[in-house]
Amino acid sequence: MASFAAVIALAGAGTAVAAGKGVFRDETGNVGIDASVLSPVYEGHRRTITDLEQLEIEGKAHYSVNNRELACQGISLYFDTEAERQAYLQEVEPRHQAAMQEESAHPDEDPCKPYTHSPRFAEQ
Prior knowledge:
There is one protein chain. The chain is built from three helices and seven strands, in the order E-E-E-E-E-H-E-H-E-H. The strands form two sheets. Strands 5-4-7-6 form a four-stranded mixed beta sheet. Strands 1-2-3 form a three-stranded antiparallel beta sheet, with no helix packed on it. The longest helix is centred in the last third of the chain and has 21 residues, at 82-102. It is globular, with a radius of gyration of 15 Å. The protein is of the alpha+beta class and 124 residues long.
């Protein structure tokens, strides 16, 4: 499975502020994502690891995305094709840029606050 999770920091010792389900701000003010606590989402539904394995066998859900917008919702998104993944990344870029402009650099600020109005990608 292609995964952006490999380059995302995992939460560990030194976490100062826990924000969303998978997002934290450390004592230096840097924001990290703990991908290990994110729920996989495929076609708008939360899935289990077993579900993902079956989807992969069927040639689906081969591409994933983890970013702060999704981690603040406690999820990772899975796509069938790289083109679908890229389409999502192009769609999210303007929201990400706006969120970065809004974000405060203070360690006590919730790093998910700029994403409170982001679209929801999974049924609750």
